[in-house]
Amino acid sequence: MTERMRVSEIFREYGIYVVLALLVLGFSIVAPSFASVTNFILILLQVSVMGILSIGMLFVILSRGIDLSVGSILAISGIFAGLLAKQEFTFVNAVLAFGVPILLGLLCGMFNGALVAWVRLPALIVTLGTMYAYRGFIVWYHVNPIYQLQPWFRVLGQEKIGPIPIPVIILLAVTLVASVVLNRTRFGRYVYAVGGNEDAARASGINVKLVKLGVYSISGFFCGLAGLVFTSRLGAAQSISGMGFELVAIASVVVGGASLFGGRGTVGKTLVGALIMQVVQSGLVMLDVPSPIQQATLGFIIIIAVAVDLFAQTRRSNAKLSVAIHEFFSGQ
Amino acid sequence: MGILQSIRPAIAAASLFALGVTASSVSLAPARAETVDVTKDSWWLTPYKASKPWTIGVSYTDTSISYIAALQKAVQAKAKEMGVKIIEVDAKNDTNVELANVESLLQQHIDLLLLEGASLKASVASIEAANNAKVPVVHFNILAEGGEYVTFVGSNQIDSGNEMGKEIVKLYKQAGKPKLKGIYMRGIAGYITDEIRNKGVKDTLKEAGLADKIEWTEQYADFSRAKAQSVAESILAKSQDYDFVIANGDDMILGALGAVKAAGLLGKVLLYTSVDGLPETLDAIKAGEIVSTIFQNPEGQGEGGIMLAAMYLDGDKSLPKQILIPFVPTDKSNVADIMKIANRVYGK
């Protein structure tokens, strides 16, 4: 019994990593060119933008919120990055081009957070509203694509340090910083506490409103950063960029084992969740599988991943439940 | 049809020439409805004043697309010149939204509906709503399959695929290899603009007897630049042994270009696209990074559409049922001319 418990415990803790490893192994067997260092680095590069967005989304979901506006914020950040990246290289221009998009992302996120925390509107409604509002604004502001960005700006998305593309380094830095914030700071503990039980968190003296403002601001900040990387990598900015990204980011967080009801999830597993989605997509492209089938496969993976996780999570509570049911019917 | 197609490039070349010369010299007195010859090249550039300040409802598919935004800009400019009032609505690619928009336009007593159908089949509901209200309908850019209408002004969508197919035939003859390997970036599965271009390409290759000489790797990239880049990266990670990439839209070929560049294959793998002739693509053609695109003229479709609407209201009942704005195959040889139009309609 204890042996079994330990296996399920390990499975619960590391199951998602096993799933990723199996997928990589599987694709490597059926598509030999999949298993190369360059392809693994490519997949990390391809996941960089979604990884950053997903980690921002994790903060919000941990607090039992949701952020549907991430794709629209990415587009705002991207367009302003594009406009500023057409200037000649000077120190000031570089600071503006790399700083303003992130600042705008932060402000958009803060606005979401303020509405959720102080006006007490449901996060789903607030961010659904700003998803449309932010998108409408940026399409109105600059409908045409911006291109011919200066080489100095494209370094961020297109260059490498050694063999590692800069977006991958940014993603790893984001992962590291976010882990530290969630695991080693008081704010991190508060985020879990608010998501786990908001009333209890409030009763224990946590400023729930500030925590909420914080998580949406962090999500916005990461959207701004992701918009920068996205624009620099693509070498162009479009006001329609990032449509539908919110759902992929939510899926990555959920596949990574976080609970949509808050309080449970880690940065590492979220990154693994995003990687699973990307590995499947890249692998299926290499196998010449048509995109509608890819979509269907991704859909099933989301469901299976969550079902497996739920199964692992509820084994013990199921045991308790069956005891309770037995007690109820036996009249004890 | 066959004849039309064969003379179209000639018309296109002539219309380009005409743009520079006649367009500026005809700005004397505004024409009258019956004096505008819609078979003439660049007829939509003829100055025109409406006899009354008509109110025309204009329904677009999705103005967040650069091409549609350019189309809208052309409609607005011409409406102002002609002295007609326009009420504009955006279907956001949703036929339910389109129908609600059209119903609201009809409530506002428009004299005519200028419609860019969001769907070939489902837009029929909007057209019938106008028919029932006895409001005439002019189609532009996209012709939906049903309901009554005055005229359609736009391009024959299969032509852009045919033209891209011809480029591949040309490439095959030049390459001197028994077989060519190509990557095909498709749009969104099931979309008419994707399917019809695919049909154009494949039919053209079949007619040239090359159907089995091209080995395809096809993937949908949703008309998205980022998706196309990512998909092309993965395909090229598997094998770099490709001769060319084609795409059913400029955004996707620009994404593929990023991947081809990153893989160091620029010049070895040639790039072609079927539509639209966005300024960035034209710049890439000029720089020799993309071989060709097919220019679709938002100015002709937009200005032409609203102008026909006004002409009909002014009493010209003899308009042909279909007025084609030709696609212009664009490569290094004529890119400078096309760029002049593109810069005008896409702005900055």
Core attributes:
heterodimer; A: 332 residues; mainly alpha; 2 strands; B: alpha/beta; Rossmann fold; 2 domains; six-stranded parallel β-sheet; 11 helices; elongated; disordered N terminus
Detailed description of the structure:
With 332 residues, chain A is an all-alpha fold. In chain A, 77% of the residues lie in helices and 1% in strands. Chain A has 13 helices and two strands. Chain A is globular, with a radius of gyration of 21 Å. The mean pLDDT of chain A is 91. Chain B is of the alpha/beta class and 348 residues long. Chain B folds into two domains: 183 residues, Rossmann fold; 139 residues, Response regulator (Rossmann fold, 3-Layer(aba) Sandwich). Chain B is 46% helix and 16% strand. Chain B contains eleven helices and twelve strands. The longest helix of chain B is centred in the first third of the chain and has 24 residues. The N terminus of chain B is likely disordered. The interface between A and B is medium-sized, with 34 and 35 residues.
Secondary structure layout:
The complex is a heterodimer of chains A (332) and B (348).
Chain A: H1 2-30, H2 37-62, H3 70-84, H4 91-117, H5 123-141, H6 151-158, E1 160-161, E2 164-165, H7 166-184, H8 186-196, H9 198-203, H10 208-234, H11 245-255, H12 267-286, H13 291-329
Antiparallel strand pairs in A: 1-2
Helix pairs in contact in A: 1-12, 1-13, 2-7, 2-10, 2-11, 2-12, 3-4, 3-5, 3-10, 4-5, 4-10, 6-10, 7-8, 8-10, 11-12, 11-13, 12-13
Chain B: H1 2-25, E1 55-60, H2 66-82, E2 85-90, H3 95-107, E3 112-115, H4 124-132, E4 137-140, E5 151-154, H5 157-175, E6 180-186, H6 192-207, E7 214-220, H7 225-238, E8 244-247, H8 250-262, E9 270-273, H9 279-286, E10 293-295, H10 298-313, E11 322-324, E12 328-330, H11 335-346
Parallel strand pairs in B: 1-2, 1-3, 3-4, 4-5, 5-11, 6-7, 6-8, 8-9
Antiparallel strand pairs in B: 10-12
